[in-house]
């Protein structure tokens, strides 16, 4: 079936296409390229030096969606990476060993700088250690983000980050780009970021409506695309989010459910909150399992890995380096377990979810650690039905359709029974 294209989808496709075109011609145009990661990314700072960011996770997930990741992972395993290594890493290494052809079919440029601004996941360190070996001589800038162990950001943590930005990151960017740090330019970009973030919060808040006009997981990963692939801080991102919000308002006014690749969701049977990344190799098939059951995801943790804006954080042009530091420390993967439980619990309550589901990723230790605890605690505190499925990000060997389908069917049966009991109790108490 042909997917119905809204104007925002076309806008996003054009943005992504242009970005990868720019990346493929960066070397001949003399533009420098920075490889970096999505959680805690410094998009605005990179662009303020006239450089382009490139995210290995995006390449990996796009390769997964285009059915290329299986081959890349096998190549990386032949090269010596074990089966348990994060499959994003192996997919990235395999892609590089295969000529570094990006998701749009164009060759990706080699990095001029490796910006290791990792948050919450130790694998990022090891990933860039590998890239450092594969791209000898390319400088590495390390921005160490302190974990929110005590569930808060202290003055010392902020100062530690700002100091690293001033002493390590900015000097290396100046050297690589050949440009002086321009604070005014950065402030202007942060103003754009905050405007886009306001809009994103409004978009991800629309599931307060019934039916929910959006799917905040499957469609949500597209919605966060522009800010997570390097457009945060640009006017294009603002245009995209304004257009998207307008389209969603239109859907609310007409009482419509989300748009899915199978068509419009006609009936909303279940509302879910989901923890964990989606599977990319069978993305459409995975989404259809929920569509067939009339299950809509009203909130997900995965759409918050690049920034938890709905908890109030905004990039602040008046405190540029402080606010970039706070941004890094506030990413979902940098929150401690009680903070994650609180966040997910507040989503369950706010969006009146019927159930909570975990998609546990085999090779992602960072996300998977603590998921059972999160699940049990939410079940106990909120008396909400919980479900657990397992898959992988981009390794097609770990997506078992029948296994996931069986587990989801039992989960939906449980949700259905709960709903029936609740309806019965309401009639009795009336
Ligand atoms: S382990 Fe998980 S969080 Fe860490 S890099 Fe891999 S996918 Fe990302």
Name the descriptors.
10 strands; binds iron/sulfur cluster; 53% helix; alpha/beta; 430 residues
Q: If you had to describe this structure to a student in words, what would you say it looks like?
A:
A four-stranded parallel sheet has the order 2-1-3-4, with helices on both faces. The chain has a four-stranded parallel sheet with strand order 8-7-9-10, with helices on both faces. By secondary structure, it is an alpha/beta fold. Strand 5 (259-260) and strand 6 form a beta hairpin. The protein has helices at 7-24, 26-29, 43-48, 56-65, 69-78, 87-97, 123-134, 155-177, 183-204, 220-223, 225-231, 235-254, 283-292, 320-329, 337-350, 365-368, 371-382, 401-429; strands at residues 33-35, 52-54, 113-116, 140-142, 259-260, 263-264, 270-275, 295-300, 355-361, 386-391. It has 18 helices and ten strands. Bound molecules: iron/sulfur cluster. Iron/sulfur cluster binds at residues 86, 88, 121, 123-124, 333, 364-367, 393.
């Amino acid at each position: 079936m042909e997917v119905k294209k809204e104007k925002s989808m076309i806008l996003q496709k054009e943005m992504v296409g242009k970005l990868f075109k720019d990346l493929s011609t960066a070397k001949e145009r003399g533009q420098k390229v920075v490889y970096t990661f999505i959680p805690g990314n410094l998009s605005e700072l990179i662009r303020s030096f006239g450089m382009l960011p490139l995210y290995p996770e995006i390449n990996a997930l796009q390769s997964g969606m285009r059915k290329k990741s299986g081959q890349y992972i096998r190549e990386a395993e032949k090269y010596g990476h074990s089966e348990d290594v994060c499959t994003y890493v192996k997919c990235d290494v395999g892609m590089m060993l295969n000529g570094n052809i990006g998701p749009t079919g164009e060759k990706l440029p080699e990095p001029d700088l490796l910006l290791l601004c990792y948050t919450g996941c130790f694998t990022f360190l090891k990933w860039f250690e590998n890239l450092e070996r594969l791209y000898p001589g390319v400088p590495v800038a390390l921005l160490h983000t302190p974990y929110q162990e005590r569930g808060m950001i202290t003055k010392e943590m902020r100062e530690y980050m700002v100091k690293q930005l001033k002493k390590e990151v900015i000097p290396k960017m100046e050297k690589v780009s050949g440009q002086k740090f321009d604070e005014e330019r950065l402030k202007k970009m942060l103003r754009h970021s905050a405007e886009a973030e306001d809009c994103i919060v409004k978009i991800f808040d629309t599931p307060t409506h019934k039916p929910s006009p959006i799917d905040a997981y499957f469609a949500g990963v597209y919605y966060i695309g522009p800010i997570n692939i390097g457009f945060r801080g640009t006017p294009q991102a603002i245009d995209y989010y304004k257009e998207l919000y307008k389209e969603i308002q239109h859907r609310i006014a007409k009482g419509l459910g989300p748009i899915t690749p199978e068509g419009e969701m006609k009936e909303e049977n279940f509302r879910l909150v989901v923890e964990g990344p989606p599977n990319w190799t069978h993305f459409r098939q995975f989404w259809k399992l929920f569509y067939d059951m009339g299950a809509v995801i009203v909130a997900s943790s995965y759409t918050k890995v690049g920034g938890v804006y709905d908890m109030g954080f905004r990039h602040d042009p008046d405190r540029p380096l402080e606010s970039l530091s706070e941004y890094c420390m506030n990413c979902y993967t940098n929150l401690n377990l009680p903070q994650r439980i609180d966040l997910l619990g507040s989503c369950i309550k706010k969006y009146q979810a019927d159930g909570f589901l975990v998609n546990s990723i085999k090779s992602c230790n960072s996300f998977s650690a603590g998921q059972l605890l999160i699940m049990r605690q939410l079940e106990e505190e909120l008396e909400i039905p919980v479900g657990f499925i397992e898959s992988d990000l981009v390794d097609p060997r770990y997506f078992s359709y029948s296994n996931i389908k069986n587990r989801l069917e039992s989960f939906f049966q449980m949700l259905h029974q709960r709903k029936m009991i609740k309806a019965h109790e309401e009639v009795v108490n009336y």
